[in-house]
Amino acid sequence: MSKEYNLKDSTSQIPSSEGFTTSKRLEGIGEYYFSQKLREIDELNKQGKNIINLGIGSPDLPPHPDVVKVLQEEAAKPNTHAYQSYKGSPILRNAIKDWYDTWYGVTVNADTEVLPLIGSKEGIMHICMTYLNEGDIALVPNPGYPTYRSAVKLAGGVCVDYDLTEANHWQPDFAQLESQDLRKVKLLFVNYPHMPTGQLPNVAVLNKLIAFAKQHHILIIHDNPYSFILNESPMSLLSLDGAKDVVIELNSLSKSQNMAGWRVGMLVAAKDRIDEVLRFKSNMDSGMFLPVQLAAAKALSLGKDWYDGVNAIYQARRIKVFELLDLLGCFYSKNQVGMFVWAKIPANYKDGYALSDEILYKSNVFITPGGIFGSAGNGYIRVSLCGSVERFDEAIKRIKN
Ligand SMILES: Cc1ncc(COP(=O)(O)O)c(C=O)c1O
């Protein structure tokens, strides 16, 4: 297990002092990088360092006030506190249907093709638990969101990387994909706009991917939480011909509606896929608090003004991030979208970890090393746009000093 995915190796076979051992499935699963790093930053803050954290993509802006109002009003009612349907409230499912129609031009059936989730992260685990048997292979992007990898392993599957490179515009290399033994491959994770590189979706490549999945009987999991951030043309993979036959799409209100802490996501797919995942998920949780679902429905009904307002703020911040990266001598594309800026580090640093540590310990600014997203990210760093312009100015000042 490499450093980038696993800072604290599992000690499952070594009993604790009380004699307890953790399960075998936790072997090789480390504590999530950010959970460990945030503790270190906490420690540094206790020493008075006042670290500027430009690492995590957790929106610092609030949701629309009307969304908060719905939550408050609904939570104040006496009859909104019971367990909820496993399939989610029909009001939220219909709001998801309308959202897909309005923004992605995708028609879905609100009763059968939509499943609200308690954040899209849990959906990744549910999908792995639903489809993977011991030893089944899931293809995961390198670099990519680390949760794909851990969820596959926790479910007993095996991760095989497919490399995304700058030279190939961070798109899958079909020659590499086809050259492998694909017989045990059951799932393929894909994510455009891509995190961490900010690469936009490319329709021709995605059409090829659908054909590839059909040919080899592979289920594509498209993770789509960033489609509205700094992107004028939000796209769903389900808008492509024949996609519903082989695609499950995950989506989220965390980033586009500034609701990361509310934990609202969704899974959109053919009826059979929804039923299959629900067989697992309905054994895991008992639905989502109704006022949260109703407020989420409100959030999904917001118009273009909402997205434009959020994006104007990210735009101004991104200019500051470019300035900060110039100061560090990094190289980056100005065509990236999403909530981060991905940048290649200067040649005098061994890797992104070295640059990240230097800035953390010398300037009290934390920037994510690209290696946590996989070995192909080693020569990069990722800066989050979730901080005010003033914080970026302060970070620039500290680094200059
Ligand atoms: C690529 C990607 N997918 C999924 C998620 C999880 O989002 P959610 O808050 O909906 O669980 C994140 C969160 O950072 C992400 O970056």
Rg estimate, integer Å: 21 Å
Structural category is alpha/beta
Morphology call: globular
Note the run of SSEs as H and E.
HEHHEHEHEHEHEEEHHHEEHEEEH
Strand runs, count: 13
Low-confidence stretches: 1-12
Report on the structure:
The chain is of the alpha/beta class and 401 residues long. It has 2 domains: 126 residues, Aspartate Aminotransferase, domain 1, CATH 3.90.1150; 238 residues, Aspartate Aminotransferase, domain 2 (3-Layer(aba) Sandwich). It is 37% helix and 14% strand. It is built from 12 helices and 13 strands. Strands 2-8-7-6-5-3-4 form a 7-stranded mixed β-sheet, with helices on both faces. Strands 9-10-13-12 form a 4-stranded antiparallel β-sheet. Helix 7 links the parallel strand 5 and strand 6. The chain starts with 32 loop residues before the first helix and ends with a helix. The N terminus is likely disordered. The structure holds pyridoxal-5'-phosphate. Pyridoxal-5'-phosphate binds next to helix 4.
A few lines on this structure:
The protein has 401 residues and is an alpha/beta fold. Helices cover 37% and strands 14% of the residues. It folds into two domains: 28-57 and 305-400, Alpha-Beta Complex (Aspartate Aminotransferase, domain 1), CATH 3.90.1150; 65-302, Aspartate Aminotransferase, domain 2 (3-Layer(aba) Sandwich).
